[in-house]
Amino acid sequence: MSVDIRKHRYTEKSIFSDPEYREALLNLENMKSQRYFQNIYVDTLHELFHVWPNVSFLANIQLMIRLSSGRNPDNMHRFNVFYALRKLFYFVISNPKFPEFTLHCWPIPFYVIHILPHLIFQRSRNNVSQQLMILEFIYIVAKYTVDDTRSVIWPFILVNEIWDVFTVFKYRTTEYFSFQLQLWKTIETLQYFILLNQYPDFYILIWLLVIATLQILSFSLYFRYPPLTWTVPILNIAPTRAEKDPFSFLYRYMAIGFVLVIFWLYWTLLSRKL
After folding, report:
1. Could you list the residue ranges that cross the membrane (predicted)?
2. Which structural domain range is residue 72 located in?
């Protein structure tokens, strides 16, 4: 039986009267003392990325809207919905009772809206069914092998990356491999790495190392198998069956601006501690 310290009321009485809470608190303190890196700079990164989930929901919503628009029914079966499907699946298994509608719940309807068009046509419906069966199989195995089924998030993410790479090799093009989505998944993995330093877990570290390796290598696929009709943002790779977008270089400046904003937020938090 585990105790969620974050949800436990922190009172002197609860600490001394609840042995489970006291044991969990001791484990937490031991875990903090075993951090991979301990200094003011890493602590500031922890603080920055603890705030990140409170604003990332907007990026998730925008990403789902972008992915859902402009898809041709003739080739819709070639697009994967694994990201939205695993997010929705994980939300269901981690919330037995429907939670209060908070900011973290806002992207859920957009995941559903993104998946629904793929259920209309038979070929794309088969693709969704296969991906859902994989997620369900992982969840069933986890129920009998791990104490907390919420840990399936790591094999979910790994299978998502493998499926995306497999799709690129299958069609010999990154036309159906969204660059924006891949970049966003890589940012999420970076967040997991930073938070992992705060609560070290060797097995999660292995999962994340494999996932990050696949994600980094997947960007090379845009050079090996360029898209057919769209220019790869930031990397500025031209498509093979259409003209190159003359304004694609602007995405590089947007990426630089995003990095500068993150650095400014980080420096603002760090300056308060110096």
Report:
1. 202-223, 250-270
2. 37-271
Do 21 and 121 fall into the same domain?
A: no
Round to whole Å and give the CA distance between 16 and 14: 6
Does residue 77 sit in the same domain as residue 186? yes
**C-beta of residue 265 within 8 angstroms of C-beta of residue 35:** no
The torsion region of residue 172 among left (phi > 0), alpha (psi -120 to 50) and beta comes to left
Of 217, 228, 119, nearest to 176 (Cα)? 228
CB 49 within 8 A of CB 189: no
DSSP 8-state class, residue 233: T
Angle subtended by helix axes 179-198 and 202-218, to nearest 10: 160
3-state secondary structure of 225: coil
Report pLDDT digits (tens) over 81-127.
999 999 999 988 887 776 666 777 888 899 999 999 898 888 888 98
